[in-house]
């Protein structure tokens, strides 16, 4: 028997579908399910009362051996399977996708088989829920081998001597048995799916091949389905801590890389499984946060079944912050989830996923949590320190720009995806009002350039009036000495934070980039941000794109604000470190503003070192010359960020699906117009002359 068994779906009775994965390196997807060692995973999919297939239970059992019969049917010949696991209600959405990939040996050639789909995705969705009456589940029912009743494409990629990947399409009619010549399969050369109808030739660099191989190796499987990528897959790391988990924010560039490359299945699975975790009970010291909170991360664990002989089950173990350093809830997780959901629909055309009842409910729960009434006088979202990418104490508590930019983006995504009816019309109205107020607030009070800094320098303080100019009572002495000489004559940026009597003048890269992508800033402000990055390239990019923030906290300031954090020492990690994963967001912002050459310059700079340095998490020193002192290697979002940047630059039309243009209707919405008291005058009209759209 071969070391690598063949994966074949079998069934014992209708309408159930049981899929058995045999041997250590077997896989339906071309990679092995993570964390499963010489075991078989059996899925039992049965129909619910409504007729929709649901995952009712699954088993994992150790078996002595697996036999593949002459009819290509795989079955266990020894070992027992027993135990009932917990019941899940996730819809079985993969059944209409057919067989994805069939592999034989390790050094075989990759052949991809996919069903031919129509271009009108809304009417021909891959969602089972919309096709229940068509019995799509039964049509893909497998028994005694492969019996796929669809006309399919075979896309075979061949590497030539000139390093050109050729994609050839051959239309085939399905037969009762699909035979694969194992000697002709090479999974190492498999690059993904391209559903175009013409032969495509494109040069693929060695660094891209390496990146795709590492990204595939980072994939995590749950019940045999890919559900995400681990944060890092460093082979030399004996203490991975939580880097072996799937983080929502970390998976976003991975998800975009897969979906841009034609593989939307892993993204769809990720969105649905993390949505399932949203409803889990989450408690820290007998206190539970509000409904709608998404986990920071999750891990697939194997748990022994009670009363069984060596059998075990796979479970998802989420972390909502109760295990995180500082026990901080991940505010950005739900925002990133909504952003990725929209991106998936835009690129794949599978809008049926957004329209599902459970997905619509998940969106509403996240928004209800973010839009809940509180004591705030500002439309910006109030959070604690460490609640986003900067997940350690760095003095960003309050209203950090990163959260506001992601919040604004998520609101715009939700407004597109929510189905408007009697149950959601009030929520949609609240979204519109918040978008309008938030955009005005950020544009008016967060923006600084040479002119604005000079105005702050001349501020009067202690103004008690509804018409005060210095509304937040900012003291001019707060302007740091470094900023006076650093700010260029042209260009500007959005400051990191704003609170009463406090302006954080540090430049935070992610918040400024997402302000461009989402059109949170005005056209002139967005152009000014890129001008500043270009003018201060040696400070913000230098040897490795891009600084997470500038400048670093040093000396007494570092001791007081970070609490003497040994990981966030000056010019390291979150305190002025250089993070290659920001490359894809920089690329997207540049392409929106018509400056792709800036992104290409940054990508070319990163290419010189990333592969040589083994794809580190971050770089240290003011110029980003050293690998981070605690940086993990083979960091997944570093790898995925690079790949996503390359694909965005090669596909401007797809990049345009991921950003937003200015919404002029929002500028006309003002909740103050609803007030009949006339007690106070709206400050927006007084300030409108200062905001250049």
Automatic annotation (TrEMBL):
<dbReference type="GO" id="GO:0005739">
    <property type="term" value="C:mitochondrion"/>
</dbReference>
<dbReference type="GO" id="GO:0005987">
    <property type="term" value="P:sucrose catabolic process"/>
</dbReference>
<dbReference type="InterPro" id="IPR008928">
    <property type="entry name" value="6-hairpin_glycosidase_sf"/>
</dbReference>
<protein>
    <recommendedName>
        <fullName>Alkaline/neutral invertase</fullName>
        <ecNumber>3.2.1.26</ecNumber>
    </recommendedName>
</protein>
<comment type="similarity">
    <text>Belongs to the glycosyl hydrolase 100 family.</text>
</comment>
<dbReference type="Pfam" id="PF12899">
    <property type="entry name" value="Glyco_hydro_100"/>
</dbReference>
<comment type="function">
    <text>Invertase that cleaves sucrose into glucose and fructose.</text>
</comment>
<keyword id="KW-0378">Hydrolase</keyword>
<dbReference type="InterPro" id="IPR012341">
    <property type="entry name" value="6hp_glycosidase-like_sf"/>
</dbReference>
<dbReference type="InterPro" id="IPR024746">
    <property type="entry name" value="Glyco_hydro_100"/>
</dbReference>
<keyword id="KW-0119">Carbohydrate metabolism</keyword>
<keyword id="KW-0326">Glycosidase</keyword>
<dbReference type="GO" id="GO:0004575">
    <property type="term" value="F:sucrose alpha-glucosidase activity"/>
</dbReference>
<dbReference type="GO" id="GO:0033926">
    <property type="term" value="F:endo-alpha-N-acetylgalactosaminidase activity"/>
</dbReference>
């Amino acid at each position: 028997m071969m070391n690598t068994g063949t994966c074949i779906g079998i069934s014992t009775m209708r309408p159930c579908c049981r899929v058995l994965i045999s041997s250590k390196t077997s896989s339906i997807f071309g990679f092995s399910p993570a964390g499963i060692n010489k075991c078989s995973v059996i899925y039992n999919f049965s129909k619910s009362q409504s007729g929709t297939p649901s995952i009712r239970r699954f088993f994992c059992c150790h078996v002595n051996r697996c036999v593949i019969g002459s009819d290509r049917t795989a079955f266990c010949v020894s070992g027992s399977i027993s135990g009932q696991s917990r019941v899940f209600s996730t819809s079985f959405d993969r059944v209409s996708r057919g067989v994805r990939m069939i592999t034989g040996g390790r050094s075989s050639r990759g052949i991809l088989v996919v069903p031919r789909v129509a271009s009108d995705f809304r009417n021909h969705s891959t969602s089972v829920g919309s096709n229940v009456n068509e019995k799509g589940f039964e049509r893909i029912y497998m028994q005694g081998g492969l019996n796929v009743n669809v006309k399919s494409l075979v896309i075979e990629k061949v590497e030539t001597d000139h390093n050109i990947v050729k994609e050839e399409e051959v239309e085939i009619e399905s037969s009762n048995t699909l035979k694969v010549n194992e000697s002709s399969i090479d999974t190492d050369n498999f690059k993904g799916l391209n559903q175009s109808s013409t032969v495509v030739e494109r040069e693929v660099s060695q660094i891209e091949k390496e990146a795709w191989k590492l990204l595939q190796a980072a994939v995590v499987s749950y019940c045999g389905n890919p559900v995400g990528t681990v944060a890092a897959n460093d082979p030399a790391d004996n203490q991975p801590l939580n880097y072996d988990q799937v983080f929502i924010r970390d998976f976003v560039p991975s998800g975009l890389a897969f979906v841009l490359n034609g593989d939307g299945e892993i993204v769809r699975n990720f969105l649905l499984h993390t949505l399932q975790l949203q409803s889990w009970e989450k408690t820290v010291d007998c206190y539970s946060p509000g409904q709608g909170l998404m986990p920071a991360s999750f891990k697939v664990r194997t748990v022994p079944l009670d009363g069984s002989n060596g059998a075990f089950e796979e479970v998802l173990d989420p972390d909502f912050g109760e295990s995180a350093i500082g026990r901080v809830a991940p505010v950005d997780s739900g925002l990133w989830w909504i952003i990725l959901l929209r991106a998936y629909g835009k690129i794949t055309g599978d809008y049926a996923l957004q329209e599902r009842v459970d997905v619509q409910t998940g969106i509403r729960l996240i928004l209800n949590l973010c839009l809940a009434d509180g004591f705030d006088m500002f439309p910006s979202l109030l959070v604690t320190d460490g609640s986003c990418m900067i997940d350690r104490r760095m003095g960003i508590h309050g209203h950090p720009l990163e959260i506001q930019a992601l919040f604004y983006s998520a609101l715009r995504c939700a407004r597109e995806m929510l189905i408007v009816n009697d149950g959601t019309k009030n929520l949609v109205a609240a979204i519109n009002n918040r978008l309008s107020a938030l955009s005005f607030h950020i544009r008016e009070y967060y923006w600084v350039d040479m002119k604005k800094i000079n105005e702050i320098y001349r501020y009067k303080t202690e103004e008690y009036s509804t018409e005060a100019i210095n509304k937040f009572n900012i003291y001019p002495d707060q302007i740091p000495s470094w900023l006076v000489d650093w700010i260029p004559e042209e260009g500007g940026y959005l400051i990191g934070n704003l609170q009463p009597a406090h302006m954080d003048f540090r430049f935070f890269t992610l918040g400024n980039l997402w302000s461009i992508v989402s059109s949170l800033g005005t056209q002139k402000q967005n152009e000014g941000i890129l001008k500043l990055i270009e003018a201060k390239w040696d400070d913000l990019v230098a040897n490795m794109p891009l600084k997470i923030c500038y400048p670093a906290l040093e000396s007494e300031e570092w001791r007081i604000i970070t609490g003497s954090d040994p990981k966030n020492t000056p010019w390291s990690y979150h305190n002025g470190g250089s993070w290659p994963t920001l490359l894809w967001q920089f690329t997207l912002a540049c392409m929106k503003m018509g400056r792709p050459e800036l992104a290409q310059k940054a990508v070319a700079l990163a290419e010189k070192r990333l592969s040589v340095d083994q794809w580190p998490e971050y770089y240290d020193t003011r110029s980003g010359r050293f690998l981070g002192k605690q940086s993990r290697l083979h960091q997944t979002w570093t790898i995925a960020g690079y790949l996503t940047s390359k694909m965005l630059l090669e596909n401007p039309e797809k990049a345009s699906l991921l950003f937003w243009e200015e919404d002029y209707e929002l500028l006309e919405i003002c909740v103050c117009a609803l007030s009949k008291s006339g007690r106070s005058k709206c400050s927006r009209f007084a300030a409108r002359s200062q905001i250049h759209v």
